Amino acid sequence: MILNMVTVKEITGRGPVDEVTVKITEVTEAREVKGGMLKVADAQGNDETGVITITLWNDDIAKVKQGDTIKIIKGWANEYQGKIQLSAGKFGEIEVVESAP
Q1: 1 Cβ contact list (under 8 Å, min separation 6)
Q2: Per residue in 42-92, pLDDT tens?
Q3: Which of 10, 41, 65, 70: CA 20 to 30 A from 58?
Q4: What CA–CA distance (Å, rounded) separates 75 from 13?
């Protein structure tokens, strides 16, 4: 299966995102949702074309830190409060390509 590598600028609306690589510039503190059943944190990621909010769920929160370069494979884009957000979704994965020093 060949994945389509996209840039931040190409991510629009709601739908699947085959593969994108971004550098993490900020990660918020994790918060509990659904009565404490899930944890979520937001990160800001950028490439040469733009900046995007990345939603990190549960175990993915511990994988990512500020300064890391990550690849999201088979992710999902969604629009929330007028802004595009990206996550690994149910079936995707986050891979740390380069760890921050």
Answers
A1: none
A2: 999 999 999 999 999 999 999 999 999 999 999 999 998 889 999 998 899
A3: 10
A4: 13
